[in-house]
Amino acid sequence: xxxxxxxxxxxxxxxxxxxxxxxxxxxxxxxxxxxxxxxxxxxxxxxxxxxxxxxxxxxxxxxxxxxxxxxxxxxxxxxxxxxxxxxxxxxxxxxxxxxxxxxxxxxxxxxxxxxxxxxxxxxxxxxxxxxxxxxxxxxxxxxxxxxxxxxxxxxxxxxxxxxxxxxxxxxxxx
Length: 174
Fold this sequence. Notes:
Largest sheet: 9 strands, antiparallel
Number of helices: 2
Helix content: 10-25%
Distance between the termini: 17 Å
Low-confidence stretches: 1-33
Oligomer: single chain
Number of strands: 9
């Protein structure tokens, strides 16, 4: 079986988002393409909320969109939830065709061990093989992928009385 590392989909999605931003002008509008061709990318930052939105259409017509910010609605793939009583401090959502990447940053009073146990159970219930498990000082990380290419990773770091964590779930991105 050909297995990609759990971060492959996340890297692909962020690369697509970077391309979207690269095709835009610094003032937040779309950059005109050369020779009067229509612009393929745009982005804006909402001054009231700080939310960033970007869109890019590739040569093949596939559109990639990105939304990132503390107030972006969280829509995790089936089987995954926000950790109980955790506070969402940022949410990034990338969509490309039928594929999606969700990267949620959380804070909790619970320990990394408690949070990792929660997300390990969710991943296993979603038929994701948790093939990566690392622990170093105050940081723990797990990750894996299912047979259809849905990848997931979760990292939690304890800082005094707060655990800061990131959950990434990607499905259908190449």
